[in-house]
Amino acid sequence: MKPIRYYSALYSAKLAVFTLKRLGRNGTQFPGALAMRICPDFLKFVPQPNKLVAITGTNGKTTVTNLISDVLVKANYTIANNSMGSNIREGIITTMVNATNIFGNKIKVDYIVLEVDERVSPRIYPFIKPDTLIITNLFRDSYRRNAHVEFIANILEESIPKETQLIVNADDPLSSFLCKENKRLSFGLNPMENEQEVKDSRIKDLVYCPNCNQSLIYDFNRYHHIGKVHCPKCDFKSISADISASLDVKANELVVNFKDTVGRFNVIGDNTTDHYNLLSCITFLHSIGLDLDQIQDELNKLEIVKSRFDVVHVKDKQIIIMMTKDQNPVATSRVFDYIRKQKNINSAIILINENTEHHTLSENNAWYFDTDFEYLNQPNIKQIIGGGERVLDLKIRIEMAGIDPSKYAYTFNELDTVNCVDIDNVDAIFILNGTKNIPEAKIIRKELIKKIESSDQV
Amino acid sequence: MIIELLYPSVSALYGEKGNIDYLKHAFNEATFIETDLNSIPYFVNHPVDLIFMGPTTERYQKIIIENLLPFRERIFDLIRNNTFFIITGNALEVFGTYIIEDNGNRLNSLDIFPFYSKQDLMHRFNSYVLANYNGYEFIGFKSQFTRIFPIQELPVWLDVKRGIGFNKDLDPEGIQSYNFYGTHCLGPILVMNPLFTKDLFNQLGYSKDKIPFEDDLIKAYQKRVLEFKDDKLINYP
Predict the structure, then answer these.
(1) Given Cys at both, which of A10, A78, A145, A372 links A109, Cβ 3.0 to 4.6 Å?
(2) pLDDT band at residue A232, thresholds of 50, 70 and 90?
(3) Res. A357: pLDDT tops 70
(4) pLDDT > 90: what percent of chain A?
(5) A370 contact residues in B (CB cutoff 8 A)
(6) Does the beta carbon of B36 lie under 8 angstroms from any beta carbon of chain A?
(7) B interface mutation test: which of A207, A356, A362 has the most B CBs within 10 A?
(8) Which of A215, A368, A399 sits opposite B38 (nearest CB)?
(9) pLDDT value at position A361?
(10) Alpha helices in chain B (DSSP H)
(11) Has residue B70 been placed in a domain?
């Protein structure tokens, strides 16, 4: 028998969802917060999903959640997910409210696809147990909240239910060893043709053997601690991938080796992280028995979420919006690595991280010093433009990275960064925003388009 | 000049690599020794001018204490002989008497300064620090699982005006004894506090008129100090 407060919370939250939708708002957090206020142990009473896949990890959660959701819908499953909003407890409760029938006793969808922030795991998994949990990767992130990667790994280790099947990245020796007793499937990306190892990452979250503290040997180091490792002293080594993939550079396809067959998938982006995200999604879809042809058909129609990577062409120039994620040095370094590899285009980079938070606090920019700004020290990167309250700190970090300070321009108003761009001397403008300033990035792009269209250049 | 970086691959969390980089910019002719977790520290058998160690994980903190305990007397001697130490984040706890771990265990540490630290992994203490030192303002951030409790009177470094000191009831922050400077403040502090850094570097024999990027450092510092004083921007605990 469920308590009255549960029903009261459910109906209030459902009403809030309805009202917010009528007002044209997403309302992904408020209904959940309301439900929690009325019934703090709401998740204890919510019906168990028919099938639940959760996605956690430092980077790639949103992309993977969206990819899986899209394919499941196209494969005629009914789903509920939190892809439009919050991955903390309130957002997850909102998703459960949406998925629960009006009587509050049954989940009305086939699948729930949940993006779960690593830190909230202990508050979620005791009540709603995922059938499958995809752990994309683990890196240091958000120091105020997440501290360090061992802390997050311990939280996951203690909160993941024993009966949950894990899908892990075999190339991440930190997350692939979590919850050793759980059943798991792993995916990995073989070294690509002419792939150069990235050994110059500023941070590496796994240097010593977790068993015996000996320095690990990286047999292949893709970036940061991603790659293949072994310990020279004990038997610790990276796991072998159950499902491995190679990149066919010419065809721009990911060639995925399953046990008995091979599938080819269009890549969803140029960045290695995009390949990992796609591969985790393929591994999951294959694990639930979806037909390979069907997975291929559906995935090949998809592209990466526009909020993460969005290109427009104006005259002979490109404007690329890429999300770098505030306080996340690895996500930002991956984007910087991508940009440094675009060697045949002259580019300008607009960095508008952090601007939304300055109204409430003086942001801690320690993460700048874990981020590979050194990657931006390239002759073809003509300009770096900072916008927002932290541009003076950014200048120092850029100088410390050895970048010619004359390449750096800044303005405290992020929207004014448009005026700093030397349009005539660049082929591409990268706008790098955080999670909270996507609207500002779009305004900047709109103004840049106007500026390019009104310029004399053809 | 010889600068030893103790265990930098695991003891420079939270952007503290920025302190190391800044030292390398300033003392580009110095010899930097990067001590591996499985090596005997260089200072044990050689003279050094400066030792830097930054924040680490709770697991590595234990290993580091084990590693350094056999050399406690040598560390004492180095401090008394005016070797410079810059110790940030929870590396400071290594120099206290003991640490009470989250599970209640007592972990004996180097016992160089009479204080203990108490871990609480359920709570992360985040704060800004605006302090006075040597007639100017010193700023930093705090993000930690621990608080410090003095056992006896401590040689305090910073007089905290706003923010959290050793613990929520104690305004002092950091230890300064001879040339030992230790604080939980992050930043990186050398980059965030050019006035302090210039003083420190002068004592270390820095010979140029300006420290690296000094003008930009000062502009950023002045902006931060104003922000740290602004109640509309910052809610101090």
Answers:
(1) A78
(2) very high
(3) no
(4) 78
(5) 15, 17
(6) yes
(7) A362
(8) A215
(9) 67
(10) 17-26, 58-68, 72-80, 189-192, 194-203, 214-228
(11) yes
Q: Nearest CA to CA, how far is A216 from chain B (Å)?
A: 12
Q: Of A283-292, A329-338, A360-369, where does mean pLDDT reach its minimum? A: A360-369
In a domain, A261, yes or no: no
What value does the CA radius of gyration of chain B take, rounded to a whole number of Å?
A: 17
As a whole number, mean pLDDT of residues A433-442 equals 88
Chain A residues in contact with B38 (beta carbon < 8 A): 213-215
Domain of A376 in residue numbering reads as 309-453
- The complex's ipTM works out to 0.96
- Closest Cα in chain B, distance from residue A150 (Å): 7
* Interchain contact, B22 vs A400, CB within 8 Å: yes
Residue A85, pLDDT score:
66
Chain A contact set for B213 (CB, 8 A): 396, 399-400
pTM score, whole prediction: 0.94
Q: CATH number, domain at A178?
A: 3.40.1190.10
Residue A192 belongs to a domain? no
CATH number (domain holding residue A440) = 3.90.190.20
Burial class (CB in 10 A: 0-12, 13-18, 19+), A265: buried
The answer to whether residue A112 sits within a structural domain is yes
**Strands of A11-152, DSSP E:** 51-56, 79-81, 111-115, 132-135
User: CB of B220 within 8 Å of any CB in chain A?
Assistant: yes
Residue-wise DSSP of A375-442: GG--TTEEEEEEESTTHHHHHHHHHHTT--GGGEEEESSGGGGGGG--GGG-SEEEEEE-SS-HHHHH
Contact A364 B143 (CB under 8 A): yes
Per the CB < 8 Å rule, is A151 touching B216? Answer: no
Which tokens in the block code for residue B204? 């270390």
For residues B60 and B53, give the distance between their C-alpha atoms in angstroms, rounded to a whole number: 12
* B188-206 pLDDT per residue, tens: 999 999 999 999 999 999 9
For residues A15 and A140, membership in a common domain is answered with yes
